[in-house]
Amino acid sequence: MQITMFQEEHQDRLTEIWLVSVHRTLYDLDPGEIESYVRLFREEILEKMELYAVKSRFGGELTGFIAMNGSKVELLVVHPHYQGQGIAGLLLDHVSQRGELVVDVGEHTPGVYEFYQNLGFVESGRSKSNVGGHIGTTVHLLRPQLSEQTGA
Q1: Which of 38, 62, 123, 147 is the most exposed place for a label (fewest CB within 10 A)?
Q2: Each residue of 37-71: pLDDT tens digit?
C-alpha cells in the first residue's frame, strides 16, 4: 500500500468512497439530499482540507482517505471492500508525524468511539452539539504524539 497526497484526478474516486460510507450510515436520504451532500463534500473537504489517500498494492486503486484540518481528523474513510486491512491505522500513523491528533465523534456512534480508542485515542472532553438539527453529545478524542505513547 502506498500513501499519496490528494490530486484532482482522485476527486471522483474519493467522492465514490465517501458516498458508499454515507449510504451505509444514512439510509433515508433522498436524491436531492445526496446531491447536496456531494457538493458540500467537494467544496468543504476536497477543496479546503489536506487529504491523503491509500493506493492498493495491486492495480493502484484508491482504497481510503483521510482529510485533515491542521491536527484535526475531519474524515477518515475506507471503502468497505478494504476495511480490516490496516488502512485507517496506516493513514493515522502517516499524519501523526505532525504531533498529537484530535477527532470528534458522536456519542451515538459507540463503534466509532471504540475504533479510535483501539488506534490510541483517549477521551479529552465532551460537549453538547447540534449537527443537522440533531441534538447530541460530541466526544472529543486525542491521540498523543507518538513519542508520548511509547514513552520514548
Answers
A1: 147
A2: 888 889 988 889 999 999 988 778 999 999 999 99
Q: Collapsing DSSP states into helix, strand and coil, what is residue 130?
A: strand
pLDDT tens-digit map of 120-145: 999 999 998 765 566 788 899 999 88
- Cα distances (Å, whole numbers) of residue 141 to 32, 33, 35, 59, 85: 33, 29, 31, 35, 23
Asked if 60 contacts 3 with a C-beta cutoff of 8 angstroms, the reply is no
**Would you state the CATH architecture of domain 1-98?**
3-Layer(aba) Sandwich (3.40)
Phi, psi of 58 (to 5 degrees): -110, 110
CA 3/CA 78 separation, integer angstroms: 13
Residues 6+ apart with CB under 8 A from 97: 146
